[in-house]
UniProtKB/TrEMBL annotation:
<comment type="similarity">
    <text>Belongs to the MurCDEF family.</text>
</comment>
<dbReference type="InterPro" id="IPR005762">
    <property type="entry name" value="MurD"/>
</dbReference>
<dbReference type="GO" id="GO:0009252">
    <property type="term" value="P:peptidoglycan biosynthetic process"/>
</dbReference>
<dbReference type="Pfam" id="PF08245">
    <property type="entry name" value="Mur_ligase_M"/>
</dbReference>
<keyword id="KW-0963">Cytoplasm</keyword>
<dbReference type="GO" id="GO:0051301">
    <property type="term" value="P:cell division"/>
</dbReference>
<dbReference type="InterPro" id="IPR013221">
    <property type="entry name" value="Mur_ligase_cen"/>
</dbReference>
<keyword id="KW-0067">ATP-binding</keyword>
<keyword id="KW-0132">Cell division</keyword>
<keyword id="KW-0472">Membrane</keyword>
<keyword id="KW-0573">Peptidoglycan synthesis</keyword>
<dbReference type="GO" id="GO:0071555">
    <property type="term" value="P:cell wall organization"/>
</dbReference>
<dbReference type="Pfam" id="PF21799">
    <property type="entry name" value="MurD-like_N"/>
</dbReference>
<dbReference type="InterPro" id="IPR004101">
    <property type="entry name" value="Mur_ligase_C"/>
</dbReference>
<comment type="pathway">
    <text>Cell wall biogenesis; peptidoglycan biosynthesis.</text>
</comment>
<keyword id="KW-0961">Cell wall biogenesis/degradation</keyword>
<dbReference type="GO" id="GO:0008764">
    <property type="term" value="F:UDP-N-acetylmuramoylalanine-D-glutamate ligase activity"/>
</dbReference>
Length: 438
């Protein structure tokens, strides 16, 4: 455990993570100062009265007079004030680093552009079924610092590239990168290699590294003294195989589970299942328990989720697909005998959408674009594209055209924050409208 007595702490950001950091220090008798660049952040009313708070920008005087800066994942380390503070020798970390300094409990750390929430939840369900007392958090569920208040045997953390940027001492029992595809390019102006470097930090001190055999960018480059395992479609220690006219999960050469017995669907979810099994094996959970949980798991909301089916038309909510790689995975898994009505749009975060073009060349696709970057996305295949201002308008137009065998798929490839508060709000609206008009 680190000793923070007598140091001056500044916390940047008043989201849930910021509040958890404030609570962390207050419990240790340290009163931090708090900065938020927003004039009216949503949690300002939750601040204790004895906390000094600066809103509407960065207070450089506070920063340069501090000993430790705790920054929100949403604030890039390239912010000029943080660059200057670092040059002055002031330590800058995030909540994950605070957490790592406080615990000796084993940690499973999972990252990736797509699927990390699903795999994190899946591994948690397997571990809990094995009787392990689990704390799950990070980029999913609870801020990690709140997990310290309960006694657990294993932490399972979903970590974003933003969180990993400010993490130094993570020593994961198991570290995994599921995949790396272009995302957050507005945050990483040097391109996907800069983004990948942030993800790679998860492996630095890990005991077991698990990577995607189909994605060379996930192969560890910082760690040369650990145990390696891999998973993939038809490659790796864990892979898919055909057996008795069915697709099976195969683990280290062993035919393990008929995928027909699983509750989830989509090729990308079968890959997620392999990843979850690899983690479970790495911490010696009995295969019989893993098999049971692999068949019971129904997936997460807003992640390639069948939300409504009527008159042979399926409505699938994949609102969590906020980047191109996730949308490509969804398109690879989409099955339909009629027409695919595809909903794309939102804030593209400066991404290059051209990788989607080849997936739109297939027959029987109709593309509806909405939101901030709809004009740009529409140029991918204008012959099949309709532009609307909102997702709701698109759904209403689609609803009067769908027929038996059609699939309506929301997999936006964009952030929702141009028109919604979150991908969850976007997905909830899609699901509601599907039931009303479908």
């Amino acid at each position: 455990m680190a000793n923070y007595q007598g140091i001056k702490v500044v916390i940047i950001g008043l989201g849930l993570t910021g509040l958890s950091c404030i609570d962390f220090f207050m419990r240790r008798g340290i009163i931090p100062r708090v900065i938020d660049t927003r004039l009216n952040p949503p949690n300002v009313h939750k601040l204790p009265k004895n906390i000094q708070c600066h809103l509407g920008g960065i207070n450089n005087q506070w920063l340069f007079n501090s000993d430790l800066i705790i920054t929100s994942p949403g604030v890039p380390l390239t912010h000029p004030s943080l660059i200057d503070a670092a040059k002055d020798g002031i330590e800058i970390i995030g909540d994950i680093e605070l957490f790592c300094r406080e615990t000796q409990t084993p940690i499973i750390a999972i990252t990736g552009s797509n699927g990390k929430s699903t795999v994190t939840a899946w591994v948690s369900s397997i571990a809990k079924s094995a009787g392990i007392i689990v704390g799950t958090g990070g980029n999913i569920g609870f801020p990690v610092l709140s997990l310290l208040q309960n006694s657990v045997q294993l932490y399972i953390l979903e970590l974003s590239s933003f969180q990993l940027e400010t993490t130094k001492t993570l020593q994961a029992t198991v570290a995994m990168i599921l995949n790396i595809t272009e995302d957050h390019m507005d945050r990483y102006p040097q391109g996907i290699q800069q983004y990948s470097s942030a993800k790679m930090r998860i492996y630095t001190h890990a005991k077991n590294c698990i990577f995607n055999a189909d994605d060379r960018m996930t192969i560890p480059v910082y760690n040369n003294h650990t145990y390696y395992q891999s998973f993939g479609l038809n490659n790796g220690d864990y892979q898919l195989t055909y057996h008795k006219d069915n697709i099976w999960l195969q683990a280290k050469g062993e035919i393990f589970l008929n995928t027909n017995k699983m509750q989830i669907f989509g090729q990308h979810n079968l890959i997620n299942a392999l990843a979850a099994l690899a983690v479970a094996d790495a911490i010696n959970i009995p295969r019989s328990i893993s098999k049971l949980e692999l068949t019971k798991f129904r997936g997460l909301e807003h992640r390639f989720q069948l939300v409504y089916q009527n008159k042979g038309v399926r409505w699938v909510n994949d609102s969590k697909s906020t980047n191109i790689g996730s949308t490509i995975a969804a398109l690879k898994s989409a099955y339909y005998t009629g027409i695919l009505w595809l909903l794309l749009g939102g804030d593209g975060k400066s991404a290059d959408f051209t990788a989607l073009r080849k997936f739109l060349q297939k027959p029987n696709i109709r593309l509806y674009c909405f939101g901030k970057d709809s004009n740009f996305i529409a140029t991918l295949h204008p012959e099949i594209t309709v532009k609307t201002k909102t997702m709701s308008e698109a759904i209403l137009q689609i609803s009067i055209q769908v027929q038996h065998g059609d699939l309506v798929l929301l997999t936006p490839a964009c952030s929702s924050l141009d028109q919604f508060t979150s991908f969850k709000q976007r997905g909830d609206l899609f699901s509601k409208l599907a039931r009303e008009v479908g």
